Amino acid sequence: MSQPQGSGAAGPAMPDFFTAGADLAITLPDAALSAVGSFPVGRADTQHLLLLADDVTVDEVEALALSLDEHAGWVGASRLQVAPGAELQGPWRVDDELRRVLELPDWVCQLMVLDCPPQRAGALPRELAGVDPLTDAFPSAQPTGTELLALTRLRAIARRLAGGIRLAGDPAAPGGRTTPVLVVPDPERSTTLTVYSPVWIVPDGVVALADPVAPGARVLLQPESAQGPTGLAAIPPEELSRLVKTLGEDVLDAAWRAAEQRRHEQAEEEARALAAGTPVEELRDGYGVVADVEETHPDWGGMEIRVQAAEAVPLAVRGESWARGGVIAYQVVWVPLDPADAHREYPPAEVRRARDAAGALIEKVAAALLAGAGGVVVDDDGFLVAL
Question: Which whole-number Å values give the CA distances from 247 to 232, 235, 256, in the listed order?
Answer without folding.
Answer: 14, 15, 13
